[in-house]
Amino acid sequence: MKKALPILRGLGVYLVFLLLPYGLLLMVQLFWPQAAEAALWFLGNFSSLITVLLLLALYKLSGRGVRESVGWKPEQVGKGGHMAAFALGICGNMAVSAVLNLLPASWVESYGEQSSQVFGSSMLMNFLTVAVLAPVCEEILFRGLIFRSFREAMPFGWAGVLSALLFGAAHVHPLWVCYAFGMGFCFSLMTERKGSLSAALAAHAGFNLWSFAVVLVPYSRVLTWIFYGGVLQLAFWGIVGLIGALFLWSRYFSKCSCGDCRP
C-alpha cells in the first residue's frame, strides 16, 4: 500500500491533465453556452497552465512545498548545465525533424496536419504557448509530478519508462507518440542524474523553440533550400543534430552528478 499511493498519485495527476479541460469546457457549455467558442480557444492555449496551477495549489494545501514537490533545484545543474541542456534540445529537434522529413509523405501527412493545429495565426501567441508554456507546464506535470511520484515507488527504469509512455500517449499521433516517448525518457534521465527538474525544462525549451523557429523557414527561400532543399541537406542537418546531441549528452548527462541517484 505504501508503494501504491505514489503510483496512484502520479496516475491521478495524469487524469487531471487529460480530463480537466473537457470538464471546464462542459461547464461553460452548460452554464454559459455563448462563451463556448472563446473557452475552447482559451483552453486550447492555456489548459496545461490551469492544470499546473490547480495541482500545485493542491500539493501546497496538502503540506508539500512547491519546489520540493517538482524537484526544482537549478543550483545543482549550474549555468553550463542549463546551456548544454538547451543546446541538446535544439540538436535533438534537428535530428528528429530530419528523420520525419525523410519518411514517405504518406506516413507524415496526418502528422503534419496535427502539428499545424498547434500553431495559430499569432506569432506572439505561438511563441508563448509552444516555446514557453508547453515546456514549463509539461515538465512540471510529467517529470516534476508524475515521474517523481512513480520514482517513490519503483526503480528508475520503470518510473522513466512509464512516465515517458504517458507523455508519449498524450501526443496522440503515432509518430509524435514515438519521439515524445524517447524525449520523455531522456528528460526523466536528465532529471534523475542532475537531481533537478530545471535541466529537462531547459532541454524541452530548446526542442520546442527550434520547432517554433522552423515555422519561420518557409518565409525565406534561402532558408528553405538550406534546411529542406533535398535529401542531402536533410541528412546533413540530421547528422549534425545527432552528433551534437550525443556529444552534449556524453559531456554533461552521462553520469549522475547530484549525489542523490538511487537504484
Summarize the entry for a quick read:
By secondary structure, this protein is mainly alpha-helical. The protein has helices spanning 4-31, 36-61, 66-70, 78-102, 105-116, 123-151, 156-169, 174-194, 197-215, 221-228, 231-253.
Strand content: under 5%
Can you tell me the overall shape?
globular
Helical amount: over 70%
Mean pLDDT equals: 88
**Biggest sheet features:** none
Series of H and E elements? HHHHHHHHHHH
Q: Any low-confidence stretches, pLDDT <50, length ≥5?
A: none
Structural Rg: 19 Å
N-to-C CA distance: 21 Å
> What is the tally of helical segments?
11
Number of strands: 0
Structural class: mainly alpha
What key attributes describe this structure?
mainly alpha, 263 residues
Structural description of this entry:
There is one protein chain. The chain has eleven helices and no strands. It is mainly alpha-helical and 263 residues long. Helix 6 (123-151) packs antiparallel against helix 9. The protein is globular and about 55 Å long. The model has no long low-confidence stretch (mean pLDDT 88).
